[in-house]
């Protein structure tokens, strides 16, 4: 009998992510963590949707990895609205 758990998901609000280069950096930062299955980026809303193994990672660890890449990230609570996007964190402007 298998004891594996199903993947969990979290949505993170990511500040400073305004272009495709930013999205690539955010995706790479989250993807390097153990247990992360996928990272979907929505530039329009400034959010990252991440599927991960609960025993291998946490929303806080994923947010910290993204923040370490220069993009402050926080888990989104249900029903919250995104804030105004700041200047691009990758200096592409």
Question: In words, what does this structure look like?
Answer:
This protein has a domain at 20-75: Alpha-Beta Plaits. Strands 2-3-1-4 form a 4-stranded antiparallel sheet, covered by helices on one side. The protein has helices at 20-31, 59-68; strands spanning 8-14, 36-42, 47-52, 73-75. It is of the alpha+beta class. It has 2 helices and 4 strands; from the N terminus they run βαββαβ.
Largest sheet: 4 strands, antiparallel
Shape summary = elongated
Counted beta strands: 4
Distance between the termini: 54 Å
Give the topology string: H per helix, E per strand: EHEEHE
Class derived from helix and strand content: alpha+beta
User: Which topology of the domain at 20-75 does CATH recognise?
Assistant: Alpha-Beta Plaits
> What is the top-level CATH class of the domain at 20-75?
Alpha Beta
Side by side, the strands of the main sheet go: 2-3-1-4
CATH architecture of the domain at 20-75: 2-Layer Sandwich
| Uncertain spans | none
The averaged pLDDT comes out at 86
- What is the radius of gyration computed over CA atoms, rounded to a whole number of angstroms? 13 Å
- Quaternary structure: single chain
Work out the helix count: 2
Q: Helix fraction?
A: 10-25%
Question: How much beta, percentage-wise?
Answer: 15-25%
């Amino acid at each position: 009998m298998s004891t594996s758990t199903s993947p969990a998901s979290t949505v993170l609000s990511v500040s400073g992510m305004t272009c495709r280069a930013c999205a690539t950096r955010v995706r790479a930062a989250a993807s390097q963590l153990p247990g992360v299955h996928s990272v979907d980026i929505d530039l329009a809303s400034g959010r990252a949707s991440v599927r991960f193994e609960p025993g291998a990672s946490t929303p806080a660890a994923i947010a910290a990895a993204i923040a370490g890449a220069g993009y402050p990230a926080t888990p989104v609570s249900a029903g919250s609205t995104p804030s105004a996007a700041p200047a691009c964190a990758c200096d592409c402007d």
